[in-house]
Design brief:
By secondary structure, this protein is an alpha+beta fold. Helices cover 26% and strands 12% of the residues. The protein is built from 2 helices and 4 strands; from the N terminus they run αββββα. It has a two-stranded antiparallel sheet. Bound molecules: zinc ion.
């Protein structure tokens, strides 16, 4: 059975009116830079995508941040995974080869 996955399928909320203005405000506040931090170090790429930090229905400026393309894709993939809920592992636990047991 083919199972087609889309990383953006979880998003059903349309962008609100005035989205462009909100995005512009977030971009200005974040200095036009990606806000992703990894180990306390902020990404130095230009912020090209506007991301919802928490609730995707909350379009307040406090809930928005700029990310670069790669970090937005990473973020969206994490969200999509979270939206699907915990998945059972598809990998079986590694079994030791009987011939290796001493
Ligand atoms: Zn980034």
């Amino acid at each position: 059975m083919a199972w087609k996955e889309s990383p953006t399928a979880w998003r059903t909320t349309p962008r609100p009116l005035g989205w462009k203005a909100l995005r512009a405000q977030a971009l200005e506040r974040d200095g036009g830079q990606c806000t992703w931090t990894d180990g306390g170090v902020r990404c130095t790429e230009p912020g090209t995508d506007c991301d919802h930090i928490g609730n995707p229905d909350d379009h307040s400026l406090d809930n928005l941040r700029m990310l670069c393309g790669p970090h937005h894709r990473k973020r969206t993939a994490l969200q999509a995974r979270a939206a699907r809920g915990p998945q059972p592992s598809r990998r079986r636990p590694a079994e030791q080869h009987p011939g290796l047991i001493r």
